[in-house]
Amino acid sequence: MKLLIVDDSLIMRRAIERSAGRSRFSEIHTATNGLLAVEMFARHRPDVVTMDITMPDMDGLSAIDLILKQNPAANILVVSALADKGTAIEAVKRGALGFLLKPVTAESVHNAIENILSD
């Protein structure tokens, strides 16, 4: 299985990578903004994408739209520091399958990914 981690913070990308677990994913790719995420998604076709919302060049909501145009069945988990309910609702409306509020724990990331994959 493949994972794409999209976040402009190196610390957050590494934390999600550790939380997701190498045993579940044979390939883990990262992107630092939504524009790169769309390119990486096309190139690697990951099974799961974790997506930040606030990033340079292209935000996560726009990237969700473009990724879902490529593959309407893409599994996207939003991991964001934006705490307002409107952002979470908008992300899910656009097609995200889950929303985690930063800071995240290893357990919350692991459980959210497992829930997405088990549906």
Secondary-structure map with pairings?
Blueprint: E1 2-6, H1 10-20, E2 27-31, H2 34-44, E3 48-51, H3 60-70, E4 76-80, H4 85-94, E5 98-101, H5 106-118
Parallel strand pairs: 1-2, 1-3, 3-4, 4-5
Summarize this structure briefly.
By secondary structure, the protein is of the alpha/beta class. 47% of the residues lie in helices and 19% in strands. It has a domain at 1-45 and 54-75 and 83-98: 3-Layer(aba) Sandwich (Rossmann fold), CATH 3.40.50.
Architecture overview:
The protein has 119 residues and is of the alpha/beta class. It has a domain at 1-45 and 54-75 and 83-98: Rossmann fold, CATH 3.40.50.2300. The chain is built from 5 helices and 5 strands. Helix 1 (10-20) packs across helix 5 (106-118). The longest helix is centred in the C-terminal third of the chain and has 13 residues, at 106-118. The model has no long low-confidence stretch (mean pLDDT 93).
What average pLDDT do the residues reach? Answer: 93
Q: Enumerate the spans where pLDDT stays under 50 for 5 or more consecutive residues.
A: none
How would you characterize the largest beta sheet?
A: 5 strands, parallel
Tell me what portion of residues adopts beta-strand conformation.
Answer: 15-25%
Structural class: alpha/beta
Radius of gyration: 12 Å
- Number of helix segments? 5
The CATH topology name of the domain at 1-45 and 54-75 and 83-98 reads Rossmann fold
Strand order of the largest sheet: 2-1-3-4-5
Please tally the β strands and state the result: 5
